[in-house]
Amino acid sequence: MTATIIDGKAHALALRTRVAAQVATFRAATGRAPGLAVVLVGEDPASAVYVRNKGKATRDAGMESFEHRLPADTTSDVLLALVARLNADPAVDGILVQLPLPAHIDAQAVLLAIDPDKDVDGFHPVNAGRLAIGAEGFVPCTPLGCLMLLQDVHPHLAGLEAVVVGRSNIVGKPMAQLLLQQSCTVTIVHSRTRDVFGHTRQADIVVAAVGIPQFIRGDWIKPGATVIDVGINRTDAGLVGDVDFAAAAQVAGAITPVPGGVGPMTIACLIRNTYVSACRRDGVEARL
Ligand SMILES: Nc1nc2c(c(=O)[nH]1)N[C@@H](CN(C=O)c1ccc(C(=O)N[C@@H](CCC(=O)O)C(=O)O)cc1)CN2
C-alpha cells in the first residue's frame, strides 16, 4: 500500500481563506477588526519565525496583529504586567505567549495569568477543564488542526481505535480528549509504556507527538491506518517528524508529511480561534 499524503498546507490555506471571509463580515457588522496579541520573549530563531508567520497570517485574514518582542532577560513581573494590560485591552480578542519561554520565567504562572476568554492557545487550565467536560472554550491549535485533518479522512470517527503517542499538556492530552469527544476508543502511550508497538499496531489512527525523530517505525503501523505526525525535529538530515515517513507511507492508508502536514494547521487554527473569540466577545455568531 502507498498512503495518501494529507496536504496540511492546502487544508490550512482553505481554513484561513474561510476565516478571512468571515472576518470581513464581522468587520462590516461590528465596525472593528478582531485583534490578536502575540508575545515573544528572547531570540529563539524558530520561535521568531513562528511569531512572524502568525503576524502575517493575522493580517492576511483582515485582523489586527499586536506584536510584543521582549528581550531574553525580561523578568516574570514585566511579562505578567504586559499580560495584565492585554487582558484589559478591549481591542485584543486573543493573547498568545510564544513557547518555550526562557528558563528563568515560570511559564505556568504566565499561562495562568491570561484571561481564559482571550486564551486562543487554549493552554489555560480553565480551557483544559472546559475541553475535558465538553464545555465551550478554546482548544489548543495543534490538536485542533490534527482533528480537522483526521475528519477529512474519516468523516465518522466514532468507534475507531486511536492511539496518541505522547502525553504533553499542549498536544497529547488535548488530542486524546478531542478524539474521545468524537467517540473514538482512545489510548495514550508514552515513555513508560511497556509495549508501544503492541498498541500502535492495533490502531486505526496514530497521532505521534513524542518529540523523538522517526520514533514510530513503519512496522508499528496497521495496514491502512491514518498517521498524523506532530513532530518537528531538526536533524542533520533536515526537518523530520516523529514517524519514519518513508516506511510508514508504505503501510498507512493516509499520512501527514513533515513539513507541510500538521504545522501549517497550527497557525490556521490560531486565526480561527481568534475570530471565534472576537465573535463571542461581541455576541456575534461565529460562522465557519
Ligand atoms: N504559544 C504557543 N507556542 C508554541 C506553539 C503554540 O501552538 N502556541 N506551537 C509550537 C510552535 N508553533 C507555533 O507556535 C508552530 C510550529 C510549527 C509550525 C509549522 O508550520 N511548521 C512547518 C515547518 C516550519 C519549519 O521549518 O520550522 C511545517 O510543519 O510544515 C507552525 C507553528 C511551539 N510553541
From TrEMBL:
GO terms for cellular component: cytosol. Its EC number is 1.5.1.5, 3.5.4.9. Residues 140-280 form the Tetrahydrofolate dehydrogenase/cyclohydrolase NAD(P)-binding domain. It comes from the Bacteria. It catalyses: (6R)-5,10-methenyltetrahydrofolate + H2O = (6R)-10-formyltetrahydrofolate + H(+); (6R)-5,10-methylene-5,6,7,8-tetrahydrofolate + NADP(+) = (6R)-5,10-methenyltetrahydrofolate + NADPH. Belongs to the tetrahydrofolate dehydrogenase/cyclohydrolase family. This is Bifunctional protein FolD. It comes from Sphingomonas liriopis.
